Amino acid sequence: MEVQKEIKQGIFYPVYLFYGSEHYLIEDTKQKLIHAALTDEDIDFNLSYFDMTEVPVQVALEDAQTLPFMGERRVVIMQTTQFLTAQKEDSKIDHDLKRLEQYIDDPSPETILVIIAPYEKLDERKKIVKAIKKRGGYVKVSPLSEQEIQVWVRQQLKERHREISDLALTVLLQTVGVDLTTLASELEKLSLYAGEEQVIDEKMVQLLVARSLEQNIFDLTDMVLNRNLQRAFRIFYDMIEQKEEPLKILALLAGQFRLLYQVKGLMSKGYGQNQIASTLKVHPFRVKLAMQKVATFDMNELLSLMDDIAEVDYKIKSGQVDKQLAVELFMMKLHKG
Fold this sequence. Notes:
This protein is α/β, with parallel strands linked by helices. The protein is built from 17 helices and 7 strands. It folds into 3 domains: 139 residues, Rossmann fold (3-Layer(aba) Sandwich), CATH 3.40.50.300; 63 residues, Orthogonal Bundle (Helicase, Ruva Protein, domain 3); 124 residues, Zinc Finger, Delta Prime, domain 3 (Up-down Bundle), CATH 1.20.272.10. The chain is 60% helix and 9% strand. It is globular and about 75 Å long.
């Protein structure tokens, strides 16, 4: 990210807006900015957080216009800025947005104001959004592509003086998925385990990295569709031991069947991976995995499975059958079918 390079070089804007749906990168960029702009001693006295669902913007601005205490600058962070979107605000706080516009036009030279908007879209029609785009460090943080995630993983490991083999990286993404928070945690664990071994290999990944719920659902779907009852039950019982609710597992299973059905339908119309991801609003990596599976499955079969799950869901919620037993019977029925 260009803004992170600027921060590392000590180049700061008086006002920043970090927005988008990739929360990990927003938090990471915010922390890098704080530690580049303030010393450890300054953080105690010159760093302030304000939640915009609890206080009006004018309170944050009063702090932004206060001189730093025994330091060079102050950092003021405004969080949960729902007023920048087209959504109806959850809180009843009366925000003086005109005053915020005036501050952005003439910001305090001793303050870095950071506005956090963890939303996919902002309301570009609003004056305040236009003002920030014109005068501030306007940074959209979108989910990374598969290739960008691979680069990101290698960069994270480089900072720890580690590398990862191509196969290990593939296994890592297949096991964990594309959630950066989870990936960061697993990379920290792998780096510590590697010790003097600079290169992380697939054996380390297989030994240490826990399978994500999403990956377990993906594998369970695969086993159900292939009528592999033994492995399907093994995955299901592993999730039960991990305290996952049968109803939640059933809902996620239905979602995965729905994704496969939609992907197959769009592929038949000539859509590519990125087009499908954009249409369905899911990460391209998930689409890639689905595209690898759907060729051998019939549309009617997937539709029938979704109907069966809906029936099981109804029986559970109406108290006709125990929830875990219902899922077990569903899988056994498929095996006999």
